[in-house]
Design brief:
about 50% strand; mainly beta; about 250 residues; 13-stranded antiparallel beta sheet; single chain
Length: about 250
């Protein structure tokens, strides 16, 4: 069995980029896209290829449970979310990941006793959806010439290549460029039936600035985005970002 890439190894593999914001393509974008990027990235900021985040929050596993986590998002390779969840006072440690096209989740009680493990095509497709949504923490990804933008009122639709797939995102923004929500069609089975594409996304409740990037720092995330089912059935992740480092 191939040894999994560690969170530290994924971070160290990210290459520094000397290009700075604004990118050469910025003036060619729709005004709403320019406002979003100018709000998200300060002038002169290096266009990062990766971000390392520290966070805490609650995750819904039947009941809401507290967690602490660290995450690396690499533009070219994928993401690893490594967390500790407290269930009835017992620590469950593990990770969700997609790296170099391979998706997996692995969770163990005390870091020793397997609680949940999954991998394969369905998991890779689902974790790719998560990776797409979390790119709002790495907005430099949206500055490339390969990103296609269309606008509809306060919404921005983005299409761009990512991890040998085509990513599709909808961002809802204010006139100031502040991000209010992110939405996409994500592969999954939240009701434990067949896997299929469903509306998925996050509502931004707070933002903060780290190293020249202004990103969402408090979000409510889940399935059935923009429907009555979001709060009653879909919401399963409430997160606060405590720190972000860019490379």
């Amino acid at each position: 069995m191939t040894k999994q890439v560690s969170l530290n190894a994924l971070w160290e593999s990210a290459k520094s980029n000397q290009d700075t914001f604004p990118s050469k393509q910025l003036s060619q974008l729709p005004q709403a896209a320019q406002r979003y990027l100018e709000h998200a990235i300060a002038p002169g900021t290096k266009l990062a290829s990766a971000v390392r985040l520290k966070m805490h929050g609650e995750i819904k596993l039947q009941n809401w449970l507290p967690f602490t986590a660290e995450q690396v998002i690499s533009r070219s390779r994928g993401t690893i979310w490594s967390a500790k969840v407290s269930m009835n006072g017992l620590p469950i440690r593990g990770s969700d990941r997609i790296v170099d096209g391979v998706g997996a989740m692995q969770w163990k009680l005390w870091g020793l006793i397997p609680v949940k493990q999954a991998s394969g095509l369905e998991i890779a497709k689902s974790t790719f959806g998560r990776f797409q949504a979390e790119l709002v923490w790495l907005p430099s990804v949206f500055c490339g010439s390969e990103v296609s933008w269309t606008t509809n009122s306060s919404q921005l639709q983005l299409s761009f290549p990512a991890l040998d797939n085509q990513a599709e995102l909808t961002l809802t923004t204010e006139n100031t460029g502040r991000l209010n929500s992110v939405e996409l069609r994500r592969w999954g089975n939240p009701d434990n039936t067949e896997f299929r594409y469903l509306n998925f996304g996050g509502i931004v409740e707070q933002e903060g600035t780290f190293g020249g990037y202004t990103i969402p720092t408090r979000l409510r995330v889940g399935w059935y985005m923009n429907s009555d089912r979001f709060e009653s059935e879909g919401e399963f992740f409430r997160v606060t970002v405590d720190n972000a480092i860019y490379r």
